[in-house]
Amino acid sequence: MATKKKSASKSKRPAAGKVELAKGKLGVMVVGLGAVATTMIAGVEAVRQGLAKPVGSLTQMGTIRLGKRTDNKSPLIKNFVPLADLNDIVFTGWDIFKDNVYESAVHAAVLDKETLAKLKPALEKIKPMPAVFDQYYVKRLNGTHVKKGKTKRDLANQVIADIQAFKKKVDRVVMIWCGSTEIFLLPTEVHQSIKAFEKGLDNNDIGIAPSQIYAYAALSEGVPFANGAPNLTVDVPAMIELSKKNAAPICGKDFKTGQTFMKTVLAPAFKARMIGVSGWFSTNILGNRDGEVLDDPESFKTKEESKLGSLEYIFQPELYPDLYKDIYHKIRINYYPPRGDDKEAWDNIDIFGWLGYPMQIKVNFLCRDSILAAPIALDLVLFLDLAKRTPELRSIGIQEWLSFYLKSPQTREGLYPEHDLFIQSMKLKNTLRHIMGADLITHLGLEYYD
Ligand SMILES: NC(=O)c1ccc[n+]([C@@H]2O[C@H](COP(=O)([O-])OP(=O)(O)OC[C@H]3O[C@@H](n4cnc5c(N)ncnc54)[C@H](O)[C@@H]3O)[C@@H](O)[C@H]2O)c1
To answer: pTM, whole model, 2 decimals?
Structure first.
């Protein structure tokens, strides 16, 4: 059923206004030009050249129903909301290695050599700027193409200068973290306010990771920031404050691609049918650079935390103790070089039904990690740019409606995240309807039987 929108008069939210059109070039600054980033950039170029379709991208292939089911009105999302056209995207980025995007894509070995050869002229033009890097935060990498600075403030200023230079070449800018998973960090004093954070930049506070230096630079420049890794990055009060202050939307954390994608489809189905779960064992083997980084226990811990949360939130054991109180949930990630980017994930799920009788489900997902992640990265970039052009969204900080794409969705303090993929999908589409002044859809549907 389609419902009339409620008035926002009592809310502190800015009044709904017209979404600005996507005029001119959209500059996309990618931190970390590795497997995911190069697969996204090469993919966009392949689509532009008509070599392939943007499969997996909701912004490019998805439709949105408007009005009643009997209205037969389902335009493409990209024709309903004003998104940047793929032909208007200009990529740049940073990496700790000097390889250009073509070389890095060859190294990542996600796309075949014939496809990459056709894209080579466009890809080799994109050369990484020197990165902000410190091996303390990513133990398994040793960067050679890095910025030098006495303080973290110096480094942040250098990234700001990179952004300002790029702004001269394009009309709007968005930043996305496709860099490695950093060690597990908890928020400390330095993350509590912009003031404390800036003091920490001057004092080289150990709590400030490189990803936060990029994020600080982006948000200071009013540039939206998406976090594709499970790193703490913008999930701290100082960054949320800066995001709101400078109307620079943020979202994170961690692209929801393979195993967690499956989990957030299956778990809601069990819960919807009141099927119990006693154990969920998830194991992964992968052999790309991400796998190598995650082989370090401190980076693995960051990933593990990100992957663990979804079941707890979906099953709500406090509401359903008989069904979900004692789940044994285990996650393993093993670096196994022969597989490269072709990750294999196994899930063994021990469930129980009527009168407690046990059953098992096995899921064996032979996926291609970056093939799944690339369209997500693209959609996040396009939707953050849309958020920046939307009066009602640009100054609210966290864009929870983008949870759909994320393993560990960032939410306002005290608000539990929605992990169920179908709730997330509804939330995303209703947000698009809302900002465009269309009726929301609740799926009640009684009016068809009046
Ligand atoms: N591939 C997936 O399905 C998937 C899913 C969810 C999350 N992720 C996350 O996305 C990120 C990228 O994954 P990937 O497979 O492309 O890994 P990757 O190792 O191929 O690429 C990461 C790149 O980031 C660079 N880098 C590291 N630290 C940097 C810094 N401080 N500044 C600039 N560059 C830096 C590395 O040199 C590397 O080129 C990882 O954190 C990963 O955990 C990936």
So the answer is: 0.94
